[in-house]
């Protein structure tokens, strides 16, 4: 018997209301540095603008004011966020270590995010898609440091070290550095890297980019151009010196709702409050088990039938 099994007859409906966040953009015509703009947006609206899709970029373009200018958005490049492939801890410079070469790292042309060590022990950043020999670490090998003369891109070198040994080498101290650099005669990859343009001001990951031609290029040789601005005439993004003062775009996150209509067939009397409650409870369990946790269920009136409203989870 399936009379009372979680089903709704064709003339009734159950809706699932799922809450998402919708960006509402606000153009601020008051030039500030990127950090000042971020602080203002957080105090007044929510944060600097995040753009996750072409559709959102189109909406943001409609909010732009005046052609031929730059306006800050929330994208930035964490130029000090170095990490090792072996271990999850972020890497921070301290007590003169690491031994950077002069004016390094410099993120030349805006796309250098992997590190090499030279025969003198100096470090520099380079484009990861450059073929270099590399140094693996092997915790089972007596020598620990395995010099590989084959030229590979950084990512391929990392995969090789992980398949044959432990990982690309991690260098935690000047003592270790002094053990490694006498083993090599040129620039070799090590396991230090960073993610380029990986996060927005609100800490969300970058899933969409709309760079202008040749961008980002880190064109300023005196400082890292590690903040992004939208060109108001085209809607394209540029990397700009964070200390420059520009207008900017803030965002406010507001709830938006999506509806999913579910139709079933049943011989049950759906005007019975007990049947309605049973249906809602079982649907709730099914949706929750399926990974949908932010929703509410309710009966609606259709074709002359009145159903009791039941909210099982508030958004």
Automatic annotation (TrEMBL):
Species of the source: Crenichthys baileyi
Signal peptide: 1-18
UniProt keywords, alphabetically: Disulfide bond, Signal
Highest rank taxon of the organism: Eukaryota
Protein name as it appears in the record: C-type lectin domain-containing protein
Residue ranges constituting the C-type lectin domain according to the UniProt record: 25-137, 145-251
Name of one Pfam family that matches: Lectin_C
Gene3D superfamilies, alphabetized: Mannose-Binding Protein A, subunit A (3.10.100.10)
PROSITE patterns: C_TYPE_LECTIN_1 (PS00615), C_TYPE_LECTIN_2 (PS50041)
């Amino acid at each position: 018997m399936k009379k009372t099994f979680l089903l709704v007859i064709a003339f009734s409906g159950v809706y699932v209301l799922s809450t998402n966040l919708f960006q509402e953009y606000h153009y601020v015509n008051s030039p500030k540095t990127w950090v000042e703009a971020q602080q203002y947006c957080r105090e007044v609206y929510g944060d600097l603008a995040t753009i996750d899709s072409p559709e959102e970029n189109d909406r943001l373009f409609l909010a732009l004011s005046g052609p031929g200018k730059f306006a800050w958005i929330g994208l930035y490049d964490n130029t000090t966020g170095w990490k090792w492939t072996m271990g999850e801890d972020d890497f921070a410079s301290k007590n003169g270590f690491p031994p950077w070469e002069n004016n390094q790292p410099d993120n030349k042309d805006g796309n250098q995010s992997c590190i090499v060590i030279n025969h003198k022990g100096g470090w520099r950043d380079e484009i990861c898609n450059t073929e270099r020999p590399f140094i693996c670490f092997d915790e089972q090998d007596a020598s620990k440091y395995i010099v590989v003369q084959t030229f590979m891109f950084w990512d391929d070198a990392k995969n090789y070290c992980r398949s044959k040994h432990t990982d690309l080498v991690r260098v935690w101290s000047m003592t270790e550095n002094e053990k490694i650099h006498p083993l090599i005669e040129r620039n070799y990859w090590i396991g230090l890297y960073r993610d380029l343009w990986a996060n927005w001001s609100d800490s969300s990951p970058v899933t969409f980019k709309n760079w202008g031609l040749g961008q980002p290029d880190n064109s300023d040789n005196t400082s890292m151009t590690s903040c992004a601005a939208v060109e108001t005439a085209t809607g394209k993004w540029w990397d700009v010196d964070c200390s420059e003062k520009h207008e900017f775009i803030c965002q406010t996150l507001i709830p938006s709702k999506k509806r999913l209509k579910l139709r079933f067939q049943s011989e049950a009397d759906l005007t019975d409050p007990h049947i309605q409650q049973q249906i809602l409870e079982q649907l709730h369990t099914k949706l929750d088990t399926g990974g949908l946790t932010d929703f509410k269920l309710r009966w609606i009136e259709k074709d002359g039938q009145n159903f009791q409203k039941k909210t099982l989870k508030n958004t």
